[in-house]
Amino acid sequence: MLSNRKLLELIESQRFGCEFQPIVELKSGDVYAYEALSRFKMADGSLIRPDFVYAALHDNPLLLLQVELAQKRIQLEGLSRQQRVFVNLDQDAFYACGTDVEENPFIELIQDHDRDRVIVELIENSEMSDALMSLSMIEVFNKLGVRTALDDLCNPKSMLSVAVLQLVEWVKLDKCVLEQRLDANFMVFVEKMIDFAKVTGKKVVLEGVEKESDLAFARQIGVDYVQGFYFKERFISEWT
After folding, report:
1. 190 membership: H or E segment, kind and range
2. Segments of the chain with pLDDT less than 70
3. Within its chain, how far is the Cα of 23 from the centroid?
4. Angle between the 184-199 and 212-221 helix axes, to the nearest 10 degrees?
């Protein structure tokens, strides 16, 4: 875990970074977009897991808002205006500012960076309140013409909200799909989710692709896009 002292030092030093990982269209092999992944460094230069940082930040909503907003600026400014970008947006940070939607700093930031190139990813976990916040955020972004994606579908720690699933334009399958590919019952559910996405006009991304066999599996189950360390074209923005 990250102590408050180390967390505060990290924030004051602004050792924030961002890794851009390509999202590749399976049919053509072309890079469609990049997912912006938050990265953090300790004082000694070592990387610290982002989930450790965000777990500590959730105890302080205003610090969470500060760091998440700084990360989003880095992520949106790290690519050219011609490149599409998927960005994760924490529900608690989104609502921590306590302002009206029209004055929400995340919305202002996305609109300043061309909403047509930005896809906002939302994560649902086991808390019903998070699902409700996700639904509310998706409704806001839909009204503004900003596309949304449901991240980590099939992750054992997440819950599935049908209402959220219906509203998003993109569905991202968690890497656990690859890990459980031999589980016949589990794969029935995955295949039905893919079928639902196709019937309702959504695009499906399989995350965690690292080997040629993973790529072959992605083609087998019929997803539209893939993402993972198999694809070498990824880069890290400068640390602020």
Report:
1. helix 184-199
2. 1, 99-100, 102, 124-129, 232-240
3. 12
4. 60
Supply the pTM of this predicted model.
0.90
How many CB atoms lie under 10 A from the CB of residue 193?
Answer: 19
- Is there a contact between 225 and 205 (Cβ–Cβ < 8 Å)? yes
pLDDT tens figures, 38-62: 999 988 889 999 989 998 998 888 8
Contact 56, 2 (CB under 8 A): yes
Structure tokens at 211: 């080997």
Contact call for residues 134 and 159 (beta carbons, < 8 A) = no
Residues in the chain: 240
Please name the helix (run of DSSP H) or strand (run of DSSP E) that holds residue 69, with its range, or none: helix 61-77
Question: Vertex 86, ends 164 and 233: CA angle to 5°?
Answer: 140
> Would you give the distance in Å from CA 114 to the centre of its chain?
18
Q: Please give the sequence-ordered ranges of beta strands (E in DSSP) within the chain, or none if there are none.
A: 16-25, 31-41, 47-48, 85-88, 118-123, 147-153, 170-173, 203-206, 225-227, 235-236
Compute the distance between CA of residue 192 and CA of residue 204 in angstroms, rounded to an integer. 12
Q: Is the dihedral of CA 96, 99, 101, 104 positive or negative?
A: negative
